[in-house]
User: What shape does this take?
Amino acid sequence: ETGVTQTPRHLVMGMTNKKSLKCEQHLGHNAMYWYKQSAKKPLELMFVYNFKEQTENNSVPSRFSPECPNSSHLFLHLHTLQPEDSALYLCASSVVSYNEQFFGPGTRLTVL
Amino acid sequence: ILNVEQSPQSLHVQEGDSTNFTCSFPSSNFYALHWYRWETAKSPEALFVMTLNGDEKKKGRISATLNTKEGYSYLYIKGSQPEDSATYLCAFDGATNKLIFGTGTLLAVQP
Assistant: This one.
């Protein structure tokens, strides 16, 4: 256990659905991250939050909307996704200014 | 565009074999190099954070070396066991709050 949990672990949704991914960290960290991993590609950073403020948006389409209500929780709200958005979505956390990141197990998302 | 390359993409070895794989990264603006071990359906697990040129770190049968001037790191596993089967990821850290990951080396150890 890394101290970072993600729910759900698997999600199947239609292109017109709205769903949310949840991440929670129990490590006292103050930076949180969303990553996407598509087949045969490296982990791709999507968003970074430091002390609840978004500090990085890596040109992610607006159909992905992150939310960080406090330093322990991170959400990724999904709406009108495309089949090519099907991927593994990983959350991570770290201490700000020290990049050793601790990852959750990911949510496997399938968009039909 | 920063590029991190890992080789080989996959590796099949017999139990007891020793093995190694490579991570190549940009040699400029280097801050740290991270190694992670990622078993299927689990969280990636941090193995090493390496910062100094010539650094060598060890954790049980796994060790890693770092050459920041030429931009490469090696990960070694001595006497591979089936439980070592996983994907090994490296990530370049340029002190920008972003890690740039390679695609990983998938290791399968046959009993």
